[in-house]
Amino acid sequence: MAVRPSASTVSAPPPWVARRAAERGLVVAAGVLGALGLVAVHAAMYPAESWDPVVAGAVALAGFLVVHMALVIADNRGDEVLLPVAAALSAVGLVMIYRLRPDYAVRQAAWISLGLTSLLIALGTLADLRWVRRYAYLCALTGIALLVLTVLIGVERNGARQWLVIGPFTLEPGEIVKLLLVAFFAGVLVEARPLLTLPGPRRWRADLGRLGPVLLVCVGSLLLLVFQRDLGLAMLYYGIFLAMLYVALGRLDYVFGGLAAFAAGATLCYHLFAHVRVRVDVWVNPWADAAGRGYQILQGLFALASGGLTGAGLGLGHPELMPASYTDMIFPAIGEELGAIGTFMVVALYLLFLGRAFRAAVQADGSLDRLVGAGLGAAIGIQTFVILGGSTRLIPLTGIPAPFLTYGGSAAVSNFIAVALLLAISDRGARAAAERRDGPAHP
After folding, report:
1. Residue ranges in the chain whose pLDDT is less than 70
2. Which of 148, 174, 227, 405 shows its CA 20 to 30 Å from the CA of 16?
3. What's the rounded Cα separation, in Å, for the pair 300 and 302?
4. What's the pLDDT score for residue 14?
5. Alpha helices (H) along 285-441
């Protein structure tokens, strides 16, 4: 007769198994809500048109469930919140893009699918971050080369030279350079950190010498971006540099010195470059040219104000009056049709993502993982602040994609690769914590 094991002899499933089950529920919920949003937009605005955008969007959102299953099969113990939050933001962005530019909805679904494919490839090839040390300078050279190429043969749109046209495809190199710079800064700082954190009085000349490669690449990138007239990426790259410098060294004097240098550089650029003066002047007083240069930001403010608390409803507002409503101004478009509740939810999702990203960095197994995780979290956080703050007139408006939310293929690929690296970092951190708690696992 078979003996039924007692409850005391049945081992409880590991905690990450339950967390992965919760992740699956959140991913499914995000996908279902996104699909319902697409159906609602189609029924309200395009009932006589083809259902292809709705089907393509639903398939793309189902890709998040495929990624979840891949994580389960690979026994990945990484953070269980990052993927659902990325899915929710992608779903909101896809619904709004379908509402604003229905001809771009299928393309955005394809970009999301490409981004998720990149996530899986990155988990299989880039998860072991030892390549960051080995190829740090190659990452820097590749990034600088991409920026130089953009300055020389890039396509200028809306006053900024940000794109490379390769056959039928348009590439935004700045999004890829963002990841390359995080890798370079991490690779150099992790090597220089032991010497830069020695006790005793600091010698600025020696410290600057050790930081020379990082400073050179950072300044070179900023100069190239000034020639591209890409102020948003300049702020992003410099913010990543300062954030990673502080995480590596814990030196607030370096951060304050960097902020002072940024203020001086921004003042100099204001007096030297007309396009910088235009951006700042429009930010200070958009009503001075309400029908011209100030039109975009004013329409964004009107959209947020008219949305009120609950919004006009999907398809019932007029966000199409805003130039670039599906890219730079997608946040005010959400505010007009989903109200303050919708915008607060988007901000809450971003804050949740950033909190989990920095949590993965804090709990990382080793200084290299910690630096890369902090750099990726800072990159997404600063990028979000720059575009959301610009579209609400908190800071001067610059053209930069809102992570996971706005239209674009380069941004989708780079942001999902960032998610892959964060999942790998948090996986190693969870395994190291379990080993410290329970001892080495036995085969």
Report:
1. 1-18, 157-160, 194-210, 439-443
2. 405
3. 5
4. 64
5. 295-307, 330-362, 367-391, 409-438
Helices (H), 173-211: 173-196, 204-210
Distance of CA 230 to the CA centre of its chain: 17
**Contact call for residues 380 and 403 (beta carbons, < 8 A):** yes
The position carrying tokens 């550089």 is: 265
Report the C-alpha gap between 218 and 243 in whole angstroms.
13
Q: Dihedral angle at the C-alpha atoms of 374, 377, 378, 380, nearest 10 degrees? A: 160
Which strands form 169-171's sheet, in the order they lie side by side?
A: 155-157, 160-166, 169-171
Neighbours of 142 (CB within 10 A): 17
Is 319 in contact with 303 (CB distance < 8 Å)?
A: yes
Return all residues near 252 (Cβ < 8 A) that are at least 6 apart. 246
Q: Are 342 and 360 in contact (CB under 8 A)?
A: no
Q: How far apart are CA 214 and CA 289, in angstroms?
A: 41
Strand partners, 156: 161
Q: At 28, phi and psi to the nearest 5? A: -65, -45
Rounded to whole angstroms, how far apart are CA atoms 376 and 247?
Answer: 12
- Give residue for tokens 């026994």: 75
Residues 6+ apart with CB under 8 A from 203: none
CB proximity list for 171: less than 8 A, separation 6 or greater: 163, 164, 165, 409, 410
Which residue, 19, 20, 21, 23, is CA-closest to 31?
23
Q: How far apart are CA 240 and CA 178, in angstroms?
A: 9
Q: HSE of 5 in the Cβ direction (CA atoms, 13 Å)?
A: 5
Write the CB contacts of 163 (distance below 8 Å, at least 6 apart in sequence). 150, 154, 155, 157, 170, 171, 172
User: CA-CA distance, 215 to 209, in Å (whole number)?
Assistant: 9
Rg of the chain over all Cα atoms, to the nearest angstrom: 23
Q: DSSP readout, 333-345? A: HHHHHHHHHHHHH
- Report CA 97 to chain centroid distance, whole Å: 18
Give the span between the Cα atoms of 37 and 345, in whole angstroms.
15
Total-model pTM: 0.91
Strand partners, 155: 163
| The two three-digit tokens of residue 100, written as one number | 């604003």
Residue whose entry in the numeric block shows the structure tokens 């990155």: 122
361 neighbors 370 (Cβ within 8 angstroms): yes
What amino acid occupies position 375?
Answer: G
Looking at the DSSP assignment, which residues form a beta bridge with residue 160? 157
